[in-house]
Write a structure and sequence with these properties.
The protein is α+β, with helices and mostly antiparallel strands and about 525 residues long. It is about 35% helix and about 10% strand. The chain contains 14 helices and 17 strands. A five-stranded antiparallel β-sheet has the order 1-13-14-15-16. Strands 2-3 form a two-stranded antiparallel sheet. A two-stranded antiparallel ribbon has the order 4-5. Strand 10 and strand 11 form a beta hairpin. The longest helix has 22 residues. The radius of gyration is 22 Å and the shape is globular.
Length: about 525
């Protein structure tokens, strides 16, 4: 059983409504953007160049302030880089992974592998046109949603929870069903599990290898639940019931067949492709993608022991981690030879973002376990601190690239690629600085839904549950975040002197106090659009 939510609703019997002016001015954002622009060598300008970045971000992204300036800087940096990947095309707006064109991409340089992250992150943009177009592109603009594993229905539903768009959901429902069924025809075996190659999960050189993986099975589970929710909204209870039943079957098979009770972890089950059946015992390694089922709240509470590995120094914890495989395993390694992207030891923003999404779900919906709020904040702090690189002339710059040395913070693939072909960049590998400003993960969404705790959900109940531990910060503020059409401000002020709005946790909706608590705790309120 989960802990009951303490409901705090402001009204006649609650805290008096307080008129609220804008809390955070654009000045902080402007200073960050000016610094990012000044340090940048703009190699591949797309639709919104650096010169337009400030105006675009002021109009579109929530403002954020906190005492941890590395985390604060990374929040703005990741919006600054996300903006680079918005590309206007004849088929509407799309979001790219790489800025230079790469040979393995699809139309308009799109790649489905990180698109779930793109949709979760970009749902907080105030202008809905970017992700409305991008969602439609995957099915009606020449996208290839099954080139890589992709939790597409879940991500489109997640966007709807923030920016309701029933017309788009109704339009795409037949496409989402057809996409789910295509995965079922091509990747489901008689055992009821879905198989995938590590490479098509975007996880090259993984120790666990190919087979029945928690990733693709969790994505199909999540997409089935999302399709059910969309069908219910569209007035089709029969389809909703069908997909809820399919999700329940996947859940049962994942928990039964991919869970290693001895290791207390979800693992890869090898597959005999010719027989279309399992070919042996579970892989003998814990890999970070074993946390993916919690991204979608798939596991029961009895599986939460897996999280003891996250902060274990022989498990996944590292100064620039988490690592993609447990460090105690004999095949764990971090090397600068072979393939430039290896999931056998490196730290990978894609996996880190999934792990933090999963951890926030654990802390919001499961009984207390081996990890808590301090672990979330520590993992997010490490992730934020990794967004840096020392430039050749000495100064340190904000940076995001493909993968990291988990012990030094060096951007591994960048180091390898820059030394290929006699010291020149390889065009066949994607061109100069291929991974610079890499858009293969999320960060702002982790701050908004995890750290600050705005938990998107259906209906008119607003749910805010900050994961900042009591006593760690004296203040934070998320301002101008648009949720279900209403501008929100969520702030914590330990003394009441920082923002002048009183002590404690306050949630404002369109300038009026909606919920308040003296301590950092979960608050809920009724939100009317």
């Amino acid at each position: 059983m989960t802990k009951p939510i303490k409901r705090i609703v402001c009204g006649a019997a609650g805290v008096a409504l307080i008129a609220q002016a804008q809390i955070l001015t654009p000045e902080l954002l402007r200073r960050y953007v000016e610094g990012f622009n000044a340090a940048d060598r703009e190699l591949y300008a797309q639709t919104i160049p650096n010169s337009a970045a400030g105006a675009f971000l002021e109009q579109n992204v929530p403002r954020f302030e906190c005492p941890d300036k590395a985390l604060e800087r990374t929040y703005y940096f990741r919006w600054w880089t996300y903006r680079k990947h918005l590309r206007e095309t004849p088929d509407g707006w799309v979001v790219t992974e790489f800025l230079p064109n790469v040979p393995w991409s699809g139309k308009y340089n799109t790649i489905s592998c990180p698109a779930g992250h793109h949709l979760y992150e970009g749902r907080w943009l105030r202008d809905p046109k970017y992700l409305r177009d991008y969602s439609r592109f995957w099915f009606k603009g020449g996208g290839e949603p099954r080139r890589y594993s992709f939790w597409v229905a879940d991500a489109i539903w997640a966007r709807h929870l923030v920016a309701p768009d029933e017309a788009l959901l109704n339009e795409l429902l037949p496409c989402l069903i057809a996409n789910w069924q295509a995965w079922q025809r091509g990747h489901e075996d008689p055992c009821g599990l879905y198989w995938q190659s590590a490479d098509r999960d975007g996880m090259e050189c993984a120790i666990g290898g190919d087979g029945y993986r928690a990733t693709i099975n969790s994505y199909q589970y999540a997409d089935a639940l999302a399709i059910a929710a969309i069908a219910e909204l569209a007035g089709d209870p029969g389809t909703a019931q069908q997909f809820r039943a399919a999700a329940a079957q996947i859940k049962q098979r994942v928990e039964t067949l991919l869970w290693d009770a001895d290791a207390q972890f979800f693992k890869v089950l090898p597959r005999n492709a010719q027989a279309r059946a399992p070919s042996g015992p579970l892989a003998n390694v814990r890999e970070l993608h074993g946390y993916v089922p919690w991204c979608f709240n798939l596991p029961g509470p009895d599986k939460s022991a897996a999280w003891a590995q996250l902060m274990d120094h022989q498990g996944f914890y590292a100064p620039y981690g988490p690592t993609t495989a447990e460090q105690r395993h004999p095949q764990f390694k971090h090397i600068y030879t072979g393939h430039e992207c290896q999931w056998n030891g490196s730290s990978w923003p894609f996996a880190t973002a999934q792990t933090l999404t999963a951890l926030a779900n654990l802390l919001n919906g499961y009984p207390p376990s081996a990890v808590g709020k301090r672990d979330y904040c520590e993992a997010l702090r490490i992730y934020a601190q990794s967004h840096r690189r020392t430039l050749p002339d000495g100064p340190e710059a904000a940076w995001i690239d493909e993968n990291l040395n988990p012990y030094t913070g060096d951007w591994t693939s960048r180091t390898m690629l820059s030394k290929w072909e006699n010291g020149t960049w390889s065009a066949q590998k994607g061109g100069e600085e291929r991974g610079k400003d890499y858009n293969h993960s999320s960060f702002a969404d982790l701050v908004i839904t995890g750290l600050v705790g705005l938990r998107p959900r259906p209906g008119d109940t607003l749910d805010v549950n900050p994961l900042v531990p009591e006593g760690q910060w004296s203040y934070f503020c998320l301002d101008g975040v648009r949720y279900r059409g209403i501008p929100l401000t969520i702030l914590w002020d330990m003394t009441g002197e920082k923002y002048g709005k009183g002590k404690g946790l306050s949630v404002f909706a369109d300038g009026k106090l909606l919920a308040h608590a003296e301590r950092l705790q979960r608050v809920t309120a009724t939100l009317k659009e």
